[in-house]
Amino acid sequence: MIKKTTPITEITEKHPETVKILEGYGLQCLGCMAAHFESIEQGAAAHGVNIDKLMAELNASQSE
Q: Which of these, 61, 29, 31, 15, lies nearest to 41 by C-alpha position?
């Protein structure tokens, strides 16, 4: 399960299928230096993304 406090790079490294989801929300995280220390919640807040909707989609991708 991905948590709001999980660092962005940890998510994309462990779950590469999430990259397309993040990009769909405008989070171009792979090229961003902040992704190494920023949590998914912090990244979503910085980009005005609904964190609850994003988390639901990220975690749903883990059960497919």
A: 29
In whole angstroms, give the CA distance from residue 49 to residue 46: 8
pLDDT per residue as tens, the chain (64 positions):
999 999 999 999 999 999 999 999 988 767 777 778 899 999 999 999 999 999 999 999 986 6
Tokens of 16: 């590469």
Phi, psi for residue 43 in degrees, rounded to 5: -65, -40
Beta-carbon-side half-sphere exposure of residue 52 (alpha carbons within 13 Å) = 0
The full set of domains in the chain, from first to last, is 8-62 (1.10.3910.10)
Angle value at C-alpha 43, between 38 and 48, nearest 5 degrees = 160
